[in-house]
């Protein structure tokens, strides 16, 4: 009991520390490379010399210079985008020659473009997360019978995660306003779904009416938050705080559950390990540094760190559903069970 309480306290403190420090980081690392006169003049001259009037097409004399690949054209790299990309690197080199810190551009570090992808490492690691969730969902379906309690709940979680990682890969491939919106919105859908699954697991033996009311409340809340993100009043710091706060509430709920069932359900340790490791992986977001080899930054490493810990959560779901099904077979009348487990 003391160990569980200690871990609960430690994770709570770690997540809130992450919230406070990350908020300060967002303010401290304001984008300034794109606001320099050097970058502005470079881009203006490039667009005037090399781009068509609408900024979409590259002038004939500059086609060979840019040498766009099929991937660049496929992912919509227009002439103005090429100018921004080229002037970004000219600005970076100018800063480096003067010994100044590497600047950010439009809120992002400079990354080398690869196969038309703006942030190739984050794309790759998002795809790896998608593959891991897909494989673990197949494993879950193989080991758990469809008539098991919480069977559909696990599917809801997996499908929401798969959708979220798809949009993460799309956004890191090309940063447009719509891809940014959908990435942030569906990333939060994973957080909300985790919270919903925690509640439904604890209340799965309660009335269908109660579970329906909670489901409606969670769906309504998420739709309202999605509308907020779509309103054009998007605030990065506020969105991050909402994500962390929702995640903390979910983690606390699961830790309380782990403490209550620690003597009856020994597999709770898988869930505990998952949240401890997830909190440690999330702390990578604190290490905001220029990309290593202009590819690997702290955010992409966070995506990478989540890949190996995903099986812990699904292994917990598998054993939990199997255990609940055995209990369902042994006892036909639910009132004889403790509804809190």
TrEMBL record:
The keyword Membrane applies. The chain crosses the membrane at residues 150-170, 182-199, 208-228, 240-259, 271-295, 301-318. It comes from the Eukaryota. Residues 1-30 form the signal peptide. One of its GO terms (cellular component) is Golgi membrane. It is found in: Endomembrane system; Golgi apparatus membrane. Its main location: membrane. GO terms for biological process: GPI anchor biosynthetic process. InterPro entries: Per1-like. It is a multi-pass membrane protein. Involved in the lipid remodeling steps of GPI-anchor maturation. This is Post-GPI attachment to proteins factor 3.
């Amino acid at each position: 009991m003391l160990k569980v309480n200690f871990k609960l306290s430690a994770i709570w403190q770690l997540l809130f520390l992450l919230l406070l420090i990350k908020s300060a980081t967002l303010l401290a690392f304001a984008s300034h490379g794109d606001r320099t006169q050097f970058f502005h003049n470079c881009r203006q001259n490039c667009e005037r010399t090399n781009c068509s009037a609408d900024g979409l097409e590259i002038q004939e004399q500059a086609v060979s210079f840019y040498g766009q690949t099929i991937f660049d054209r496929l992912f919509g790299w227009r002439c103005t985008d090429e100018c921004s990309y080229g002037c970004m690197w000219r600005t970076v080199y100018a800063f480096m020659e003067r010994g100044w810190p590497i600047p950010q551009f439009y809120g992002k570090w400079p990354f080398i473009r690869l196969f038309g992808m703006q942030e190739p490492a984050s794309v790759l690691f998002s795809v790896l997360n998608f593959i891991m969730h897909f494989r673990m969902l197949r494993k879950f379906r193989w080991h758990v019978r469809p008539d098991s309690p919480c069977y559909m709940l696990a599917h809801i979680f997996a499908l929401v995660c798969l959708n979220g990682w798809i949009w993460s890969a799309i956004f890191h491939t090309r940063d447009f306003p719509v891809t940014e919106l959908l990435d942030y919105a569906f990333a939060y859908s994973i957080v909300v779904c985790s919270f919903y699954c925690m509640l439904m697991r604890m209340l799965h033996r309660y009335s269908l009416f109660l579970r329906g009311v909670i489901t409606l409340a969670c769906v309504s809340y998420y739709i309202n938050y999605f509308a907020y993100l779509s309103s054009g009043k998007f605030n990065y710091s506020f969105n991050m705080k909402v994500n962390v706060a929702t995640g903390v509430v979910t983690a606390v709920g699961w830790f309380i559950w782990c403490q209550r069932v620690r003597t009856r359900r020994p597999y709770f340790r898988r869930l505990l390990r998952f949240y401890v490791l997830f909190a440690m992986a999330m702390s990578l977001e604190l290490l905001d540094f220029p990309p290593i080899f202009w590819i690997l930054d702290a955010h992409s490493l966070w995506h990478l760190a989540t890949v190996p810990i995903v099986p812990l959560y699904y292994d917990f779901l598998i054993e939990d559903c199997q255990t609940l099904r055995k209990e369902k077979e042994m006892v036909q009348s639910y009132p004889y069970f403790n509804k809190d487990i």
